[in-house]
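Form P-L/3: holo structure prediction, ligand zinc ion.
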Amino acid sequence: MGPTEPELRFLPTERRLHSPTLQGSQHMGRIQPVTCEHCGKQVPDAVFCTNCGAHQGLADHSIAAQERPHHFAAHPGEHVAQPSIFTTLFPHLGHRKLQEFRWALLLGFALVVVLTATGLITAAVVVSVFLVPTLYVVYLYEAQVYRTEPALVLGATLGGGIVLGLAVTIISERVIGGSLGSTGEPILSYGVILPVIQLIVMPIPALLLRVLPQFGQTIDGLVFGVTAGIGFALAEGVVSYWNILTYPPLQPVSADWIYPITSLALLIPLLHGSTAGAVAATLWRPSRTGSGRWISLFGVPIVLVAVVAFYAGGQILDNHGVGQLIVLFYQTALALLVVLYIRQLVHHSLIEEGLDQAYRPIVCPHCHHHVMAAGFCPSCGVALDASPRRETGLLPAQAAAQTAQEGQ
Amino acid sequence: MAVTCSHCGTVNPDGNTICKSCGMPLGPVPADTAATAADAPPPDLPGVALPVLDEPLAVPSGTGSTPAAQPNQTNYLPPGYAPGSSPYLPAPASGAAPLHRTGGLSVIAIVGVISLVFGGAGAVAAALRTGSSAPPSGVSAPANVPSNTGSGSSTTQTSTNGGITTTPFANVFVPPGFSINDQGSDYIVLTPDNNDNGAVGLQSEPLTSTKTNAELDQDLLAGDQQNGDPSAKICTTKAPTHAQLIGSGGTITADVISICENVTPTGGPAYAAVDGFIDAVAKTSTGSLEAIWVEIFAPANDYQSFSNSIPSTLFTQTIFSNAAPTT
Ligand SMILES: [Zn+2]
Ligand SMILES: [Zn+2]
Ligand SMILES: [Zn+2]
Ligand SMILES: [Zn+2]
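OUTPUT (holo model):
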């Protein structure tokens, strides 16, 4: 992948459905089903193999065609290595829905900034704490990742994350803050031990859902892990800022608040969500084979290094008088590192897990084409496992299905 | 008969066309009408977007067996999917289920409304708290400092109204009648305009190891002893009392201690003095620790009246930047 990706070399015109010279019904009668060069199955002739997701337009058997690093499985318009937070942590959203979520977060954060600037610190803290969790719950509803079990999934992930967040934050502040005569370094306690404990605890509620057969895919693990991490961040924010919520500052200076509140509203939910999601997704299907196996083996070490560098490194920079803006950039870069890891893991998982699925007519949630598809949209190549989990877009065919069942 | 999902193995009741667990189709589905594809193709895949075909194609008729995965079969086309056809189906009729559960601008509306509700609640709560002027329980002006300067002992009334001065470590409220005598990156010294015997200092200092407030007290005592008076000691045998300092991350419980010592100024006679501290260990936004304190210094015989003359506004309106409670 990356810079070694070959130039796109297309097969002869009749192999290309997306040729600008072949429009509409001109296709009829001229195209043939093709044998996919990568999975060997006969599939409808289209830009992407609907069975294995390979990019069919490429003339060679390169990794660029099969692993298609230039078409992220959950969002084919992006490269896998593009550090895009939304398409990684909200993988079920099509490009258009995604824009709505982006705007919602942007406007919510703008409100936080306005509240901070006008000195309404308590209000800014409250909105900050609830902004990302609210957005993510709306996402879970839109994508229906929980299938038919909204209460169970939300309770286990968001609820579990909140309970664990309250417990860990309250206990740790008692233990570390009140450790009489302790000789430990604060960098060790706040920068290493506490983040590692958080990392171990956060994904637990999500991992409990792995026993249910309908949540067998890596992308389920990711989304549940992210939800648990965001719940944890919510609880941590409430505990840490309890003083502000109960005793508002008398004469706040807005400039003092903008960095802590940015961190509270965006950075910590991003860090906790992505790290818990990465750990949950990595552990979701431990028996994976091939390149996915190597990727999942690296998950826990990468995330561990990232969180320790985030907290301990941030503390060291702070102690050496490095500006808060720089520390914020540094910590954001580390969170993006985790996001990039998640994209590699999720991309390979979607490609592997999308193989050999059943055909059905579907309105692709990503490109909105009405297509006959198996695991991947033949038009845009999105993995259909990364599409909303519900009947929308599928053709309702009660009568025909009943006929078929009676005939069995 | 019940139908077992070929994708995830869940047993579904009769009549289900979609697996109740994973959403995969359970039986063959004909290409009649359904969802709307009114939206245009995305702009992010140039050259890939296709026109929707305007003629019906040969697609599953609904009479065959299940089109579930058949990995061992080379011909993987769905039943009824004739060679020569494209995967593109005719545009579905309108009036079917919408493609999204949350329509149009509703995501923005939901998040906006919830934010405004939470923000409004937060603002009202803050206003109510601030409105009830009594300090919250546990928050009190430090010992030695009156809650109000209106009492007769005050000697500091001047024409200045006081105000906030910004330093790298705190936004310090300089009370009326005080002015800044000395200032560095991590400390500031205020002296009363009409009294040269006492001074008030505010300071912050990064801590390299975990400390409790009690250990910080010991450090401050040791510091006074090293500064020329080995006999410096805590003035009373009473346990330190407590007060609150305000950090940008919340109110911080501080110890209040008084250190009795002898000061020998260069070229002058030694005299007994009191060095009072309201000190606390605070946590910064990045989790590191720092010591913050307000120091009240005066000759022993003048200490009580001097500390009484410091307006409580110094304590209620000074905010230590980037400092939050450790517990
Ligand atoms: Zn293929
Ligand atoms: Zn491609
Ligand atoms: Zn598509
Ligand atoms: Zn199923």
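COMMENT: The radius of gyration of chain B is 37 Å.
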